[in-house]
Amino acid sequence: MDFLNIIKKQLIEVIEWTDDSRDTLSYRWPDDDKEIKNGAQLIVRESQQVQFVAAGQYADLFNPGKHTLSTENIPILSTILGWKYGFQSPFKCDVYYLNTRLFTGNKWGTSNPVMMRDQDFGVVRIRAFGTYDFRIVDAPLFLKEVAGTDQNFRLDEFNDTMRSRIVSVFTEALAKAHVPVLDVATRYSEMGDALLQIINPSVREKYGLEITSFILENVSVPPEVEQAIDKRASMGAIGNLNDYVKYQMGQAMTAGGDASATATLPATMAMGFGMAQEMMKSMQQGAGGPGAAAAGDPFSPAAAQAARAGAVAGSAGGLQVLTPEQAAEVLSVAPQDVIAAIEAGELKARKIGTAWRISQAALDEYLRGG
After folding, report:
1. What is the tens place of the pLDDT at every residue in 272-285?
2. Is residue 232 one of the residues assigned to a domain?
3. Whether 50 and 11 share a structural domain
4. Does residue 271 share a domain with residue 214?
5. Which residues, at least 6 apart from 248, have a Cβ–Cβ distance to it below 8 Å?
6. CA-to-CA distance for 277 and 283, rounded, in angstroms?
7. Are residues 332 and 220 in the same domain?
8. H or E element: which one contains 68?
9. N or C: which end of the chain has fewer CB within 10 A?
10. How far apart are CA 81 and CA 35, in angstroms?
11. Is 316 in the same domain as 352?
12. What is the 3-state secondary structure (H, E, C) of 293-347?
């Protein structure tokens, strides 16, 4: 009888594991070099799976529930060990418990800058970090590629193992998505959702994991990209250019000093346009038109404008047409400023070949603020 008790004590009758750590991913159940009794009870709790491994091969997988271990419900193990149906002898194999609950708030980040190709900036180096949530969905693949034969594979070991792999998958997903670097640096939430669709299939296929959430918390870009983002924001904040010029004038008048000279450069241009408008009104009010306005001072800018306008009018059937240089002389600004106003759509003009021509009516409309 004592001999039978000794034999009985060498057999495992119940296999179960309770995890109180909250950070264990896989746990190899300790058998103390004992054999498992045929007909033993296997208890698998919620958020657990059990993977049997025998002779270096992955055998049967058990989901939550209470299982009686016999040849009927461990067919893969029976095949590996060469058992016949109804085999009753005890056996040995490795029993791995896996935690299938959702692990949240895991950090990832690029220790070194990663390169991405952008249409606007060429090759750009960026740094990024954030968090992700995951769960185990393929136990054999996870044990094979990540946990291995570790007795107690915990979350800190997982983070050390997976950090570089997650960054690698992130870099591949970023390249496939073809997302402009300006969007990467300003639209974190949308980027995380978009990249998740690319990252998840790759992680599942390679490591047996499902990424349920992938969040970008910060993306660092080179200084030139930061400047481009600031300029885009500034243009959006300026809005109406006329209101911005008025605001600048008011600020400069309040500030005074040398600083106001730089700040009022746009306002100075606007004042030049206004003075030119008044000059043209005075010219048009003369009894003889442009010729009469020029009679008082044949060397004035008004006289030059009148002469040119008269010449053009004679050849164009009464339509007054100016070149950008002539319009610049009338407005007392640089020709480049006139071209800029044309290209911005603020001053109406027609391009003939490579040259711009501006009608007097379009110039008057521009000066009236129309």
Report:
1. 555 556 666 666 66
2. no
3. yes
4. no
5. 263, 264, 266, 267
6. 10
7. no
8. strand 65-68
9. N
10. 14
11. yes
12. HHHCCCCCHHHHHHHHHHHHHHHCCCCCEECHHHHHHHHCCCHHHHHHHHHCCCC
> Could you give phi then psi for residue 283, rounded to 5 degrees?
-65, -40
Q: If you average pLDDT over every residue of the chain, what do you get? A: 77
Residues 6+ apart with CB under 8 A from 231: none
The domain total for the chain is: 3
Pairing of strands 24-28, 94-99: antiparallel
Q: At what angle do helices 265-285 and 324-331 cross, to 10 degrees?
A: 90
| Tally of CB atoms within 10 A around 142 | 24
pLDDT (0 to 100) of residue 138: 96
* Structure-token pair, residue 332: 């007392």
* Short-list 361, 364, 368, 367, CA closest to 316: 361
> What is the model's pLDDT at position 55?
84
pLDDT, one tens digit per residue, over 292-328 is: 444 445 445 555 555 555 544 444 445 688 898 988 8
Report d(CA 15, CA 62) in Å as an integer. 12
Q: Which residue has the tokens 């009516």?
A: 361
C-alpha angle 14-15-16 in degrees, rounded to nearest 5: 120
Handedness of CA 201, 203, 207, 209 (dihedral sign): negative
Which structural domain range is residue 301 located in? 264-367
Nearest CA-CA partner of 287 in 296, 277, 278 = 296
* 355 vs 243, residue with greater confidence: 355
What span, in angstroms and rounded, lies between the C-alpha atoms of 219 and 226? 11
Q: Is 257 within a domain?
A: no
250 belongs to a structural domain? no
User: Following DSSP, what letter does each residue of 97-128 receive, concatenated?
Assistant: EEE-SPEEEEEEE-SS-EEEEETTTEEEEEEE
Measured over all CA atoms, what is the biggest interatomic distance in the chain, rounded to whole angstroms?
Answer: 138
Whether residue 323 is contained in a domain is answered as yes
